[in-house]
Amino acid sequence: MASLTGKTALVTGASRGIGRAIALRLASEGASVTIHYRRDEEAAHSVATEIGTTQLAKADLSSADEVRTMFSWFPGNSLDILINNAGVWGQTPLGSTSEETLDAMVDVNLKGIFRVTQHALPKLKDGASIVNISSTAARVGNKSGRSLYGATKAAVDALTRSWALELAPRKIRVNAVAPGYVETDMTSEFFSNRKIREDAVERSPFGRLGNADEIADVVLFLCSPAAGWITGQAINVSGGFVV
Ligand SMILES: NC(=O)c1ccc[n+]([C@@H]2O[C@H](COP(=O)([O-])OP(=O)(O)OC[C@H]3O[C@@H](n4cnc5c(N)ncnc54)[C@H](OP(=O)(O)O)[C@@H]3O)[C@@H](O)[C@H]2O)c1
After folding, report:
1. Does the residue 1 lie in any domain?
2. Rounded-to-integer distance, Cα 67 and Cα 59, Å
3. Which domain holds residue 222?
4. pTM
């Protein structure tokens, strides 16, 4: 029997990229997955069709009202798995970043995940599993003006540790997965620069970038009974980019 048969899951940002790969992977192991998206309805529908579900949930995670409305449709005590995947990446050079840009990134990458998890709490069953998608950027510095992104992901790791302890009385496990560079829409423009791409490949011990399925496999493991004794951890999934 598949390891997640009979389980229900919500994956945020599942319309494309890493979230899409996670949704497909959880579904392939028998989970009934709700596909969350923000604006790319067509892409979300296509993922839903691929896994044979009609469960779609739309919300801009930077809006407290939209997150609240989204969860009002979920019955209480109905979710076994929550994957906090949706996120944004961007440049925030120290010398030139506006307040609006700062707020926009914090609103999705930090406040968004907090809002979602807060509203998910009464919907999560005891013994549920939460996986937060962090980044190796939380652990390594970079000189290309992406300090705030790394800081928001370091915050995700901090939330993971504390929520693991806060939710332990309900036997809810909380872990994080920290991908290294993965080719998705998020990084496509960045890696269209040949020099940047070559540098990233050069820094990788395995000499290549990662792919979304490699991240999804680790998320699946953390949601499965095989990871029942793991909580409060953040696992680098970067092919040794960060060791
Ligand atoms: N790609 C990498 O190299 C890499 C490395 C480390 C960590 N990560 C992390 O992995 C996660 C997924 O990244 P990805 O590469 O798959 O990105 P992506 O291809 O750009 O996809 C981002 C997803 O997040 C959703 N999203 C963005 N802003 C949102 C908002 N305000 N409200 C609700 N949903 C929102 C998007 O929904 P719509 O399509 O509907 O807009 C989309 O489904 C992110 O947390 C990212 O930080 C990525």
Report:
1. no
2. 6
3. 8-236
4. 0.98
Helix H, strand E, coil C: the string for 200-226 is HHHHCCCCCCECHHHHHHHHHHHHCHH
66 CA → ligand 1 middle, Å = 18
CB under 6 Å to ligand 1: residues?
13, 15-19, 37-40, 43, 60-62, 85-89, 108, 133, 135, 179, 181-182, 184-187
The string of pLDDT tens digits covering residues 193-220 is 999 999 999 999 999 999 999 999 999 9
For residue 48, tell me if it sits in a domain.
yes
Number of domains in the chain: 1
Taking the centre of ligand 1 as the mean of its atom positions, its distance from the CA of residue 185, in whole angstroms, is: 8
Indicate the angle between helix axes 99-109 and 111-120, nearest 10 degrees.
30
Helix (H, G, I), strand (E, B) or coil at 165: helix
- Condensed to tens digits (0 to 9), the pLDDT of residues 65-99 reads 999 999 999 999 999 999 999 999 999 999 999 99
Instruction: Report the CATH number at residue 99.
Output: 3.40.50.720
Within-domain flag for 241: no
Residue 3 lies in a domain: no
Query: Which residue in 149, 163, 181, 241 is the catalytic one?
Result: 149
Q: Catalytic site residue 149?
A: yes
Nearest C-alpha to atom 34 of ligand 1 is from which residue?
Answer: 38
